[in-house]
Structures are given as structure tokens and as C-alpha cells.
Amino acid sequence: MQAGCYVATRAWIPLQTSSDKGSRRSLVVRSAGSRMELSLTRPDDWHLHLREGDLLRAVVSHSARHFGRAIVMPNLKPPITTTAAAVAYRQSILKALPPDSRFDPLMTLYLTDNTSPEEIKLARKSGVVFAVKLYPAGATTNSQDGVTDIFGKCLPVLEEMAKHNMPLLVHGEVTDPNIDIFDRERVFIETILSPLLIKLPHLKVVMEHITTMDAVKFIESCNEGSVAATVTPQHLLLNRNSLFQGGLQPHNYCLPVLKREIHRQAIVSAVTRGSNRYFLGTDSAPHERQKKECPCGCAGIYNAPVALSLYAKVFEQAGSLDKLEAFTSFNGPDFYGLPRNTSKVKLRKSPWKVPDSYPYTSGEIVPMFAGETLEWFPSDN
Ligand SMILES: NC(=O)N[C@@H](CC(=O)O)C(=O)O
Ligand SMILES: [Zn+2]
Ligand SMILES: [Zn+2]
């Protein structure tokens, strides 16, 4: 599988140390023999699809190996719309983890037209639900039960969330079939997100998996600490050519769909400048191979096994490795008001081949950059 990569190559700039907020030494780049090595505070994944059943059991260890926590998306069938369902889903994730794992799944609720303000109180009280997810109905995988009119029935719920400091996580695309698919994020910002924040200026919002320069401009126009964005490896490394290069490439298809090169560049430059408004969210979204390679293939890229390696590549190529750790490990917990992790992970500059697929009981999952060689190898010690 040929996956396009459109990052200008830059010479490797060896760094000695960089500091966290100018004080504590955190990221260390050193040469162990001839191998470069990064030591990072353990990252968290602020946007992850873990699925359920066989698929959950097949994928969860790929995230749990290197990430401390993850915001787990609620778009199951049926979706996780109540705190009780979120608590039960969390138990099934914990059960699927390797015995010695300390991975902490942070749960979310799926917002519907009928979510009640009471449910938000329950969610906050539970201590395990950390956000509510807005899927415009029909926008993406398993979004059919999502919101049909955010300005209709949802306002009391959103007001309750603002009161409890509970973030709204947004799949930011309009669903109007008359709007070109490449414009749906920009139009969502103009017609929904921006007016919503004028109505509810105290609502904390994460714009998930941003894909455009319009999103970057919007995020930077908002109050810091109140509106932020997650960014995926695919939207940092690929542009829309990767969907068609050498033939149709279903494993590069996700929503929001990959955009033009100028958008990719705008996102790379926003993230690698070191702004605390952006943090790591892989949007790792596994689908069994046959569900991707068929006449009506699902949207979603499985990147959990390669994500850290790819983020390091992006920051390295931008000459900003000193900004990597804040993106992977500080900005997310700071936004959510959670403590930063205390343990570390390492990334060694040592080539490794991405498996062609991960077989499991019900088929196989093809990862992003399947069969290709990547440079940064993540390990726990
Ligand atoms: N990103 C995707 O293309 N797919 C996600 C849903 C989502 O995050 O929109 C999925 O659940 O498969
Ligand atoms: Zn989404
Ligand atoms: Zn997602």
C-alpha cells in the first residue's frame, strides 16, 4: 500500500534538552551509540475509538502500551448515551486490557436530541465521564443517532455542561448533501460552532480532528483554555492526493476527509509552533479489512500502532522536536484539568516495519502505513 507523505525533508537537528514551561527538564534527545532517543512524559490520546467485543480485544493493547489515558469515543451500536452505559463500557475496556496495564479509559457520552440535563449531572458525579460528544446526525461512522438541530433541543444540556465545566467534543462537519464534502468543516464553523459559542461563551469545546486552515484560524480566534483542537497523524502527514495515489486507497479514507496540501501545511505549522491550543488525538478508528475494502467502505484509519512514531516524524521534519512533548503529553491534561502523567516513554530513532495487518478472531485490521518503514520506534524503557 503506497501512502503519500508530503512533508518537506529537513536536516536532523540534534537537540540537547528542552524545558517544560522554561523550568523542568523534560524532553531529552540523546545519542545512545549512534541511536537518537527521545524521552517523553507518557502521552495520552484525547480521541480514540476502541470499539467492543473481538475488535476491542484486538486493538486496546496497541493504545495501552504507550498511552496513559484516552478519551474513548461513544459511537458504538447502540451508542453510549447514558452514564450507566459509559460505566459498563469502561468495565469491558478494563477487562480487555493486559493484566499489568495501568491504562485509564476516560469515558464520553453521545449527545442526542433527547439527552437531558440530569444526565450531565450523573455524568459529572460518576467520576469516569469526562466529556460529551456531538455527532451531527449522519456526519460520520455510527452518527445516525446524533444531533439533528443543536440550537433546538440541546441548549439546556449544553448550559448544564458549561455549568459543570464538561467539555463538548465536536465532529465539526455539516451534513447538508448540497455542501461540498471538502467545505463541510468550514461551513460547520461558520454556521454552527461560531454562533454556538456566541450563545454559550462559557462552554468548553474541543474541535476534534481538525483538517483545515479555517479551523486553525477559528481555534486561534477563541479564548485560550476554553476552545482547543485535537489533531490526527493523518491530517498532519497526508493530503487528499493520498486517497487516489496509484488507485483508490480505502485505508486513507477517514472523516473529515483529507484536504488540500495548503490545509495540511497550515495545521502542521500551527501545531509545531508550540501553541497549547492543540493536543494529540489519534482518531484511531479500526474497521475490519472487508469493511474498508468493499463497494461502500467505512470511514476511519487505524493508526494506534504508528501514531507516536508519526507525530515524532512531523515535529522532527518541522525542526520542532522540542515542542513535541507539550503536544503529546501536557496540553491535553492541562485543558481537561487533569494531572499530567508521571511515567515516561521512549522513542528511539531506529527503523521498524509496520505490520501489513493485525489478524484477530473476526478478520484483520490494516494499520496506517501498513508494510512501510518508519523511523521512530516507541518503547516503554
Ligand atoms: N474518523 C472516522 O473516519 N471514523 C470514525 C468516526 C469519527 O471520528 O468521525 C469511526 O468511528 O470510524
Ligand atoms: Zn469524527
Ligand atoms: Zn473519531
Give a verbal description of the structure:
This protein is 30% helix and 20% strand. The chain is an alpha/beta fold. It has a single domain, classed as Metal-dependent hydrolases (TIM Barrel, Alpha-Beta Barrel). The longest helix has 16 residues, at 184-199. The protein is globular and about 60 Å long. The model is unreliable at 1-25 (pLDDT under 50). It binds N-carbamoyl-L-aspartate and zinc ion (2 copies). Residues 47, 49, 73, 283, 285 line the site of one zinc ion (ZN). GO terms for molecular function: dihydroorotase activity; metal ion binding. Belongs to the metallo-dependent hydrolases superfamily. DHOase family. Class II DHOase subfamily. It catalyses: (S)-dihydroorotate + H2O = N-carbamoyl-L-aspartate + H(+). Keywords: Hydrolase, Metal-binding, Pyrimidine biosynthesis, Zinc.
- The chain-level structural class is alpha/beta
Strand order in the largest sheet: 4-5-6-7-8-9-10-11
Element-level helix/strand string:
EEEEHEHEHEHEHEHEHHEHHHEEEE
As a percent range, the share of helical residues equals: 25-40%
- What's the CATH class, please? Alpha Beta
Tell me which ligands are bound.
Answer: N-carbamoyl-L-aspartate, zinc ion
Described by the principal axes of the CA atoms, the overall outline is globular
Largest sheet: 8 strands, parallel
- Percentage of β-strand residues: 15-25%
Nearest-integer average pLDDT: 92
Number of domains: 1
Q: Using the CA coordinates, give the radius of gyration.
A: 20 Å
Total count of strands:
15
